[in-house]
Amino acid sequence: MNKLLNKVKQIKWHIWLRDLGILGAIFVAISVWQSRDMLDIDSHLLLKDQLLVSMDGQTNTILKADKPTLIYFFAPWCKICSLSIGNLEYLDTNKLNIVRIALDYTNVEEVQDFADKHNISSQILLGHKGIKQQFKIQGYPTYYILDQQQKVLAKSYGYSTALGLKLRQVFSG
Asked: Any coiled-coil ranges, and where (predicted)?
């Protein structure tokens, strides 16, 4: 009887692992499909002289030369952005610069309301159609990790958990 119970448990364990593998494969396939029109991994951008204005009126460059940069593109009306922007707080800023860029906003007050609602004290840059086109932004949120030479190390579109962002940080840096 014990052998039969062990065999049943083993079969259930194998079924559970199979189902988990299928779910993982589906998740990867969806992620690849969603990011098909984004910039290619290992492609290079020309951003050195690109300046964007922050919400406080300061002019800033997108990339810093000291470490890789995660660029998070969002729209203040985006519900998924509302759910995901807080996950950026879990990343190690000693190893990664984080740049938040607002796009498709009506006015600065709309972006400020979004920042206040989500307790974002970090700087937010105000993007424009040119930067949206340069990064091939099709929807929100869109993430890119770029190295110091402006090479795309990682990309993602849609909701990312704090764990997913940390894994991208580990594997890209």
From this structure: none
The SS3 of residue 33 is: helix
Give residue 13's pLDDT.
79
Length of the chain as a residue count: 173
- Residue ranges with strand state E in the chain: 51-54, 59-61, 69-74, 97-102, 124-126, 142-146, 152-157
Mean pLDDT computed over 109-114: 96
Q: How confident is the model at residue 8 (pLDDT cuts 50, 70, 90)?
A: low
Tell me the C-alpha distance between 143 and 108, whole Å. Answer: 22
Q: Is the pLDDT of residue 2 over 80?
A: no
For the whole model, what pTM was predicted?
0.77
Measure the CA–CA gap between 129 and 151, rounded to whole angstroms.
Answer: 21
Asked whether 160 and 87 are in contact (CB, 8 A), the reply is yes
Measured distance CA(68)–CA(173) in Å, rounded: 7
Q: Which residues contact 170 (CB under 8 A, 6 or more apart)?
A: none
Q: pLDDT at position 148, please?
A: 84
Residue 36 Cα distances to 40, 100, 120, 129, 151, angstroms: 8, 22, 30, 20, 17
